[in-house]
Structures are given as structure tokens and as C-alpha cells.
Amino acid sequence: MLKRFNPFNKILSSLFKNRPYEEKNVLISDEDYFIRAIKFEDIKDLLSIEREVYAGELPWTKTAFLMELQAADPHLYLLIQKAGKTIGFIGCRIFDKDAHITNVAVLTEFQGQGIGSFLIGEIQQFALLNKCERLSLEVRISNKNAQRVYRKLGFTSSTIKPEYYTENKEDALEMILSLKEE
């Protein structure tokens, strides 16, 4: 309870411009989860998830997460928990009419259960509320499973970005979901 009133935490919280997100319990594939906006003290858990999902790699550092959480652009970063344990997260930043998914990861043991799709759906709602016309993301050219999930959600392939991933110079496939009403 004292942490809540710590003046240092209050100052830091005011620096982070997380958009309001109503935390909630959700049911996904008949399992209970809890979803809420990411706070700066969650970054340690996010890095741990990255290490597991990306085989020891850290695509995003603590500094990268901190910078995103305090970015001036409209953004939404969410985490999802099962029984109090953080099992996944997603982030999005809005540029003009584009909502760009910056990062999404779900612990391996929880993949294939609809959690990633649910998180993308939450970001899609955020994008629509912000009058975006498209939702975009990059995915490793070798990550066929993720591409399949994104296609199932309505994303289409756009362009290949050569050597997008700096650690191994792998290409990325940009994928886009149109949010415009036809």
C-alpha cells in the first residue's frame, strides 16, 4: 500500500502517458485472464517473456520500453496475466492514420490458445477509437506461424523490409489490416 503513495512513483507515473485502459478479467478459450495497461515496473516481466519467446534475444531493451511508454504519440501497451503471472504483452503506437503494432509476445506454453489474437483485437479497438485507417506490423520472414495468425485476423502482406532485424539481418514482412469501412 505504501508503494502507491510513494512520491517518486507518482512523479514517474505522471511522466508516462499511457492512454486510459480499463483493466478487466477476460475469458479466452474457457480460461480466465486479467488484462491491463503496462506500467514501468512491469518491464522486468516483459524482458523475461522476450528472452523465452525469442530464444535468449532481447529485441527490446528496458530503455526501449521506457521510451515507448513515455512517447508523446498516442500509444497503448497491454499485458495479460494468468493467475497473477504475466504471460504476454502487446504494444501499439499511432502515427497519423496508422496504428502500428510495435511488439507482441506470448509465452510459448500459452501460444495457440487465442491470447495473441485477443491482444490484437484490443489494439484494433484502440486504433478504431483513434480513427485509424489501418493497423500495421512487421514479422520475421521466417515466422510462418505468426504470419498465418495475422492472415487469419485479416492482415495482408505489404512489403518486405530487407535486413530489418539487426541481430541477424533477417528480412521483415510488413503486414497491414485495413480498418476503413468499405
Automatic annotation (TrEMBL):
Domain of life where this protein originates: Bacteria
InterPro entries tied to this protein: AcTrfase_RimI/Ard1 (IPR006464), Acyl_CoA_acyltransferase (IPR016181), GNAT_dom (IPR000182)
Domain N-acetyltransferase: 33-180
Pfam families: Acetyltransf_1
Keywords attached to this entry: Acyltransferase, Transferase
Example of a GO MF term: N-acetyltransferase activity
NCBIfam families xrefs: rimI
UniProt-recorded name of the protein: Ribosomal-protein-alanine N-acetyltransferase
Protein species of origin: Enterococcus termitis
Highest classification ranks of the organism: Bacteria, Bacillati, Bacillota, Bacilli, Lactobacillales
